Amino acid sequence: MSETKIAAVGDRASVILFHTAGVTTRDVISLEEAESAVRELVVAGYNVIFITEAFIKDMTDLTEKYRREAYPALIPIPDRSGSMGLAEKKVIDNMEKAIGTNIFDK
């Protein structure tokens, strides 16, 4: 089995902890830089790419391109200002698709 390659893309303050943990990081300041970084990481064979919610929310074309594939997994993460709820919404949407209901619904 090949080694899983993991990366994180976002503003420097949000991805610095990934870097200190030995994860490849790309600190970016614009959506264009973020999309370019993701494309480069995909070509380089990264299997899991964490992307701050501030950037991934506007990457619909790019995320749709890879949504049906096993890899790369593009995972939204909160940035330093906190969560926008995108990761939680994605989990709930996938759960509803898989089992037909939201078990966390109150």
Summarize the structure in words.
The chain is α/β, with parallel strands linked by helices. It is 45% helix and 18% strand. The protein is built from five helices and four strands; from the N terminus they run βαβαβααβα. A four-stranded parallel β-sheet has the order 2-1-3-4, sandwiched between helices. It is globular and about 35 Å long. The protein starts with 5 loop residues before the first strand and ends in a 7-residue tail after the last helix. The model has no long low-confidence stretch (mean pLDDT 85).
Task: Please give the number of β-strands.
Answer: 4
Radius of gyration: 14 Å
**Helix segment tally:** 5
CATH class: Alpha Beta
Q: Classify the secondary structure makeup into a structural class.
A: alpha/beta
- Strand arrangement in the largest pleated sheet: 2-1-3-4
Write down the overall mean pLDDT. 85
> What is the domain total for the residues?
1
What's the shape?
A: globular
> How far is it from the N-terminal to the C-terminal residue, by CA?
41 Å
Give me the CATH fold name: Rossmann fold
* Biggest sheet overview: 4 strands, parallel
The percentage of residues in β strands lies in 15-25%
Low-confidence stretches: none
Q: What is the architecture at the second tier of CATH?
A: 3-Layer(aba) Sandwich
| CATH homologous group name | ATPase, V1 complex, subunit F
Give the % helix. 40-55%
